[in-house]
Amino acid sequence: MGICEKAIYKNVFLQWNESVQRFLMSRGVSPNDALDIVQDCFIKLWQNCANIHEEQAGPFLLKVARNLSIDQYRKGQVRLKYKKGVDVGVNNQDGQFLLEEAEFKKKIEETIASMPEKSREVFILSRFDKKTYKEIANSLEISVKAVEKRMGKALAILAKQNIMKKR
Amino acid sequence: MDNPNDILLSKWFQNTITDAEKEQLMQVYDLDSLRQSLNKQESLEFDLVPADELWSGIEGNLSDTNVVSEPVNTKSGSSKIKIQLLIAAIIILGALLLYLFRPVAGEININTKPAQQIQQIIAENVSVDLAPGSSLDYNEETWNESRLVELKGQAFFDVNKGDKFTVQTTLGNVEVLGTEFEVWERDDLLQVSCYEGMVKVTTDGGQSAEIKVGEKVSINSGRLSRVEKHKDQGPGFLNNRVSYDRIELSSLAKEIERFYNIPVILNGIDKQKTFSGILISDDIDKACSYIAETLDLKYETGKEKIEFHIQ
Predict the structure, then answer these.
(1) Residue B183 domain-assigned?
(2) If DSSP codes are grouped into helix, strand and coil, which group holds residue B123?
(3) CATH number at residue B244
(4) Is A143 domain-assigned?
(5) What is the value of pTM for the model shown?
(6) Gap between the Cα atoms of B129 and A27, Å rounded
(7) Which residue of A143, B3, B86, B94 is most buried, as measured by CB atoms within 10 A?
(8) For residue A150, is it within any domain?
(9) ipTM of the complex in this document
(10) Which one of B8, B10, B63, B283 makes the best mutation probe of the A interface by having the most chain A beta carbons within 10 Å?
(11) CA B259, CA B277: separation in Å to the nearest integer?
(12) Closest residue in A to B10 (Cα–Cα)
């Protein structure tokens, strides 16, 4: 059974719209372009709704997102922001701390941007989309073993950046 | 090139690493530092576009004409031409009881309660699918002389090619010319859709229309509509997707009650507002969710009732 009912389709949208956005942004796609591409992905999903089961929606969306962002790949920068409620120390920390926070954020952005495509995809799905290895394997249509390898590679890159100075 | 330490890092990340393996890894990487990096990364996020903003850009671009319609499960195997009649007839399942209590010799009644759907062979070679809350009456003994089926509600008939009979409803008659079609009578509206062959629909006033495969016609307040086209291969109720075009909410509530056998309350809602869309008839949550979504309402489901109200 496909996902042609609007309510079901919208559920799929709510489940996956953030992941598709992060996927594109982590590839260096600019926010404006990402907005257009995400919408195109979901419209393409709708056009194929009769042939796609709910469980296949994720892999389909990510594939389309990858295809539609090939010429955007690594053009822009990876931009992150602090989550709401995170104490960035604006009120009570000194300037040095704030500077270090800003530097750390920049380092993470650069590290993510520097990761090879396959490792980066897994890293984002794990650390930002909060997916399990099994879910990641399903989403990218690869084995769990492959997910382990790619995540390991991403972590190695992160470790090598040595972002945290020992205080 | 595969580095074996990568897998160890992954295991460390998942907390499935052994002590010995951890020792090995610590020779190569500053794991504490890595853990701190990950913790700090935890507080960062992408600057996402909010879902509703994104959705409004998508929703406007969805077009039904681009979608391949779902294939409907039609009965397989038989080469009989099927007839669907929307006119409901009452058929009582307990034929023995009916036999005992029937007022006329040979009269048979079959009916379905809300949320009940049955399939039955009548008159030896007519197969009937009766939708919930419907009933069918016919006379077994006089069948050969007078092939009349009285229907109230919604049904699908499957008839041998060449067999003819008439389905009577209070709103009009449907003459079966050996085809497959659905007859659906509700309030003041009779809808007949043909999926194979041809049927002739007649009003009490004598107006009639012949419709063939891919066509449908309705009788509304005694008047025959013009013949319209449809793309369905079978009746919605057999596929748990019942389609409505501008049904008043008060009637929609009754339809939900008919399919699910649970009272539906419209709280503070204009009951004459109309709904055009689908009633999913095999999953109450999906059904209510879809309807609420389409009409911009909220709903609550409980064991005793379903209630819709304004946001």
Answers:
(1) yes
(2) coil
(3) 3.55.50.30
(4) yes
(5) 0.49
(6) 54
(7) B86
(8) yes
(9) 0.91
(10) B10
(11) 16
(12) A152
